[in-house]
Specification:
single chain, 262 residues, alpha/beta, Rossmann fold, 8-stranded mixed β-sheet, 6 helices, globular
Length: 262
């Protein structure tokens, strides 16, 4: 069963579907609280049903390519991930801009480097009398040391979908609005400690300015891949890529962000 209704209705509809023994593919966000996410996932397990959320970008070829690079260690240690997901509208009545847009970036970060949060700071702003926050800036420090910045907005004159990943060996830019969506930079900073005459230690700073590589990306739509994956999991009984682990990581992050916002 595919559920593409206002977010606050996801829980009730998914619960009824799971009680009826139906597999569910739920539009993001899966649930509006971590408690409800756990309840639905536990129910799916008891009923032997597949529960999957539409974290669409986990099925985007550029994100899968980056995941492969990171898993192989080609990018080195991931120092930071910086993402902008901004556009003019669409203002949502039922959820704020974080639940509407940042959910995508949180899912991507979790897929690439995990989502164990150590510290968080959040600034959000409403637009005039509209009840939901329309602009937000989220800063996360993950337990693995990666720093994450996510900027989301319904108040931008232009549409930007850009993620920059800084590794100690390579860097990357994923621009979902560009024709060539992914660029890999063989660039970085090299620090070496040297014994100085005037000081005990000095750092020698060098900059690696290597080639820029644009991998050829297969253009099959991400949503098509996600739906195909859902059907594959229904047939095989395997856990979806955007199943329990992804759902709980992102929903927990959304819960922390909502409680931290100023």
């Amino acid at each position: 069963m595919f559920i593409a209704t206002p977010p606050k209705s996801h829980y009730e509809i998914a619960r009824e579907a799971l009680l009826a023994g139906k597999h569910v593919f739920v539009e993001k966000p899966f649930a509006t609280s971590i408690d409800r996410a756990y309840e639905l996932l536990d129910l799916a397990e008891k009923r032997n049903c597949v529960a999957m959320v539409d974290h669409t970008f986990l099925f985007a070829e550029p994100v899968r390519y980056l995941n492969n690079l990171i898993r192989k260690g080609a990018m080195g240690e991931i120092v930071y991930i910086s993402s902008r997901r901004i556009n003019l509208g669409l203002f949502q009545q039922n959820v704020d801009v974080v639940f509407d847009l940042a959910v995508h970036d949180l899912a991507i970060v979790d897929f690439l480097v995990g989502m164990e949060i150590n510290r968080v700071s959040v600034f959000k702003r409403k637009f005039r009398t509209f009840p939901q926050d329309a602009w937000a800036n989220i800063n996360l420090e993950l337990k693995n040391g990666t720093l994450v910045n996510i900027a989301v907005s319904w108040l931008s004159p232009v549409k930007i979908r850009e993620t920059i990943i800084g590794g100690t060996e390579m860097m990357a830019i994923y621009d979902d609005t560009a024709t060539n969506k992914l660029k890999i930079f063989d660039r970085g900073v090299i620090l070496s400690e040297t014994l100085g005459q005037d000081e005990l230690y000095k750092f020698m700073v060098q900059y690696k300015l290597g080639n820029i590589f644009e991998p050829k990306i297969f253009s099959k739509p991400s949503l098509t891949r996600a739906v195909e994956h859902f059907f594959d999991c229904v047939r095989s009984g395997e856990e979806p890529i955007s199943g329990r682990k992804s759902i709980l990581a992102v929903t927990r992050a959304l819960d922390i962000i909502s409680r931290t916002a100023t």
